[in-house]
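Hi R.,

Here's the chain you asked about this morning:
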Amino acid sequence: MHVFDQDGVTLLAILSGMPPDEGTVQDLIQAALGDTDPDGPLRWHVISLLRQRSDLESFIEARRLCAADTVAERLLGVDIMGMLRPFADRTLPVLRFLAASEDDAMVLYSVLIAFGHLADPRSLPSVIDLAGHQDARVRYGAAYALQHVLGEPPDRAGLETLRTLASDSDADVAGWAALGVALRSAR
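And here is the predicted structure, written out as tokens:
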């Protein structure tokens, strides 16, 4: 099934009825890239379809996107990787590399959200490193990720970082971190 019209515009009605085993991964990725809103419904519908597939082809394409020249492609690759838990052992090195080398704040934010979705304590050093970033969006991503990657028992440095973010100058960062501290304390 081909999901594009002649102009390359994806039809949401076609995609929304498409079972996860129809359409190629490339077609789905092109459809997602056609939605320029990082929070767009079409983009996230495609990511959901790729999550349902959770196959090697989806992982390989997401990894390829993470190395792309454009922010839009790297952002999509990271968002897909954050949903592919069966490939966490392969995903974490890619995400940790991006956490250490990426310049774009939105890509870094998405890397942190992906770490949170994967909930793997091996990402904790990267999250702690980004918690002091100058961009509030990145710190917000760190506040989200920290509560999910602290491990059991919770890592002391990670908890201290979460507590520090709870007094961040940005109200959204501080609020999310305070919620994380409260949730961790309730366990």
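One quick note: The longest helix spans residues 171-185.

Cheers,
M.
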